[in-house]
Amino acid sequence: MRNHLLITFVRNPELGKVKTRLAQKIGDSNALEVYIDLLEHTKSTMLSTTCQKAVFYSEHIPESDMWSKNDFLRFAQHGNHLGERMAHAFQIGFGLGFSNIVLIGSDLPTLKATHVTEAFERLKNCDAVIGPAQDGGYYLIGMTQYHQVFFNNKTWGTSSVLEQTLNETKGLKVDFIETLNDIDTFEDMEGLKKFKKLYDEYK
């Protein structure tokens, strides 16, 4: 799938700068460990797909890290808020000649390669595809061409993001895949086998 690009957004994994809401309960060091585990899961999931792949860093592009230059295009995020940063990433992708682009978050412990495959499959018959998150946002968005309307006038980081998005894109055909939960807070870890020991320690 040479014309398919899968993008993920990551925060540079630095102590005290990732999963800050989670860190309020379990501490900065544990929060960093959880985030690195989530990054490893995201990387493994992406490598299980056959499309081209890219990672966009929140702060800077390291000389070397888990995101190998052999497997991933590597960029820095640009923009004052999430909408601007996502818009920039899609513009980069389409500018490189990709005709189907899917962007995913990097904090989804239940994300599977099949979610990505399904998203690209849905794009054959719609303008955009969304993977809703349980918190009212979304963990995945895909498009076949750039639509600025997805990135304007949203209250990013709130439970109304998906609703706002759908209200402003009624002229487009938008499809959906399975709803998943990302990890932002301590409560989000409940019931996850991978983090059971840590959850039980702090509950």
Key structural traits:
203 residues, alpha/beta, Spore Coat Polysaccharide Biosynthesis Protein SpsA, Chain A, seven-stranded mixed β-sheet, 6 helices, globular
Describe this protein's structure.
With 203 residues, this protein is an alpha/beta fold. It has one domain (4-202): Spore Coat Polysaccharide Biosynthesis Protein SpsA, Chain A, CATH 3.90.550.10. The protein contains six helices and seven strands. Helix 1 packs across helix 2. The model has no long low-confidence stretch (mean pLDDT 94).
Low-confidence stretches: none
Count structural domains: 1
CATH class label:
Alpha Beta
How much helix is in the residues? 25-40%
Total E-strand runs: 7
CATH superfamily: Spore Coat Polysaccharide Biosynthesis Protein SpsA, Chain A
- Contiguous helical run count: 6
Summing up helix and strand content along with how strands pair, one would put the structural category as alpha/beta
Rg, please? 16 Å
What best-fitting shape do the alpha-carbon axes yield? Answer: globular
- Side by side, the strands of the main sheet go 3-2-1-4-6-5-7
Order of helices and strands: EHHEEHEHEEHEH
Please state the average pLDDT score.
94
Q: Any guess at the CATH architecture?
A: Alpha-Beta Complex
**Separation, N- and C-terminal Cα atoms:** 44 Å
Beta-strand fraction estimate? 15-25%
The CATH topology assignment is Spore Coat Polysaccharide Biosynthesis Protein SpsA, Chain A
Please give the largest β-sheet.
7 strands, mixed
